[in-house]
Each structure stands twice: as structure tokens, then as C-alpha cells.
Amino acid sequence: MNTYIIRRLLQVIPVLLIASIITFSLMHLVPGDPVIMMLGDDATAEDIAHMRRIMGLDRPIPVQYVEWMGGLFRGDFGRSLRDNREVLPTIISRIPASFELSLVSLIISLGIAIPIGIISAVKQNTWFDHFGRFFALFGLCVPNFWMGLMLIYIVGFLLGWLPLYGRAGSVFTSWTGFKHSLLPAITLGTAGATLTMRLLRSGMLEVMRQDYIRTARSKGLSERIVIYKHALRNGLLSVITVVGLSIGQLLGGSVIVETVFSWPGVGRLVFERFINRDVPMVMGSMMFFGLVFCLNIVLVDIMYAFLDPRIRYD
Predict the structure, then answer these.
(1) Taking the CB of residue 127, how many other CB atoms lie within 10 A of it?
(2) What is the pTM (predicted TM-score) of this model?
(3) C-alpha distances in angstroms, 118 versus 59, 135, 138, 210?
């Protein structure tokens, strides 16, 4: 197992390298000039050329990438082209907000998906099962930004139940902070719940047709024990994969949701700095997203062995 974990962690390095090359290249293909955005449209050609030399933007793109990677290996993520702030401390200051939002979203997602998935599998082809499948289809079709805007208008503006936007302290230490996180967390959580619910339902239906489930019932075990002790544990294998992937998707989806709800996380930082062509800040944020996503996949693979004793990594 230890050898497998080390090998999987080493595989993260080329994945992040390829992701950095793609992101760096795409950033330079986006129309717009960060120097003009900084100096304004009235800047002279001499001022623009001088600023480009100072910022190193006059060098070829491959040279800029190699210099950026060199700084990355030294622990230097560079400085923002927008406000000259250091990239790494800025990202670290935004991580708690994104982490809290992702955690609350994941709890909401699992709190919706697991009960509906289990009941839909146990009560297959009933009205509840049809409702669950409709909910899953609806959640997959509705964009995050539209769901967020509807929640802001109905729940926040018309009903006045929850704050409309912003963050007011940590969700773990402040009731006000928790209430501010609910609307964006519900927006992210409902989108993730749909796929998890469908996979759990399918996995439960497949497991409940197995011989050992019939054997457990023939022994006189209660239906509750058969479902929760035998069927659910094996039905969760596919869900674990989705949950691991959903953490990365929550971070990626938070770019839109954090912008809609003015949530001061890494996702909103990426959106703001992408608009301003702030390459160092966007690159640092994307490396953070990529690292979290890859580590989640490794963690999911390890959890497989604990959930299913038949799985072993040689």
C-alpha cells in the first residue's frame, strides 16, 4: 500500500506540469493586455514598452513560463501584475473561505443525495423514486449561476430568510457567518447531489440483486440491517469516487458561485484576476485547484481498500 501511495503521489507531478503549461498558454491567448489595463488607454507607446520590460512581458512566452516555473520550485509564486502583491500569501488568505464553502456544500450535497438515493433504490418505481429521478435530471440541467440568482431573488430578496451575499466571519464560529454561507452552499450542493444520488441508487439496486443479500434476508435479518450494513457499504463504492471528484468540482464551480454571491474565496479571486489578465495570480490559483483535485483522487483510491476488503494494491 505504501508503495502504491508513493507512486500515485509522484504521478501528480506530471499532471500538474501539463495543467500549468495549458493554463499558461491559454492565459496568453486571451485578448487584452495587462499593461494597458494598468496604465489606461491614454498611456503612450513608450510607457507601455517600458512597463512591459519591467514586468518581463516583453520576453517570449516559453521564457516567461520557464522563469515562472523556476520561481515555483523555489517557493516563489511571483507577484500580482495588478497590485504587486505576493501571489502565495494572497491565495492562502482566500483558502479558508473557499474551504468553508466547499465543506458546507459537500454536507448539503450528501445530506440530500444519500437519503434520496437509498429510498429510491429500496422503493424502486414508486412515486418517490420518480421524484428522485426528476430531481436528479433537474439538478443536472440547471446552471449554477441561474440557481444562485433564483435563490438570491426568492429566498434572500422576496422572503428575506437569508443574507444575499458576502461573508461574515467563519461558518464554524459564527451563526451569522453560517447563514451567509447557506445560499452559495445550497447552490453548489444541489448540483453535486444529483449525480451522487443517481450513482448511489444504481449501486444500491445492483448490490441488492446479489446472492449475499438474498442470503442475509433468508437468515432472518431485518431489512434495516440488510440495507444499511450490507447493501449500503458496497453501494457506496461508486459514490466515494464521485465525492472525491465533487470536491474538485466544488472548487471549480465556486468560481461562478463565489462571484455571484460576492464570496471572498479563491474562485472569486481567479475570476477577478482572469478579467485583468493577472497571469501570476491565476496560475497560482489554478495550481492550487489542480493540487487539491489530484490529492482527492489519491485519497479516493486509498479509501477503496477500506470499504471493500477485496480490493488490494500490489
Answers:
(1) 8
(2) 0.76
(3) 58, 14, 19, 16
Domain boundary (45, 76, 107) is at: 76
CB neighbour burial string for 210-244, b if at least 16 within 10 angstroms, e if fewer = eeebeebeeeeeeeeebbeebbbebbbbbbbbbbb
Q: What percent of the chain has pLDDT over 70?
A: 87
The pLDDT value given to residue 130: 82
- Reported as a single tens digit per residue, the pLDDT across 285-299 is 888 888 887 777 777
C-alpha cell at 260: 455571484
Q: Is residue 26 part of a domain?
A: no
Domain CATH for 138? 1.10.3720.10
User: What is the pLDDT confidence band of residue 249, given thresholds at 50, 70 and 90?
Assistant: low
Domain count along the chain: 2
Of 214, 228, 212, give the one whose Cα is nearest residue 310.
Answer: 212
Last residue of a domain, one of 46, 76, 106: 76
- Residue span of the structural domain in which 50 resides: 32-76
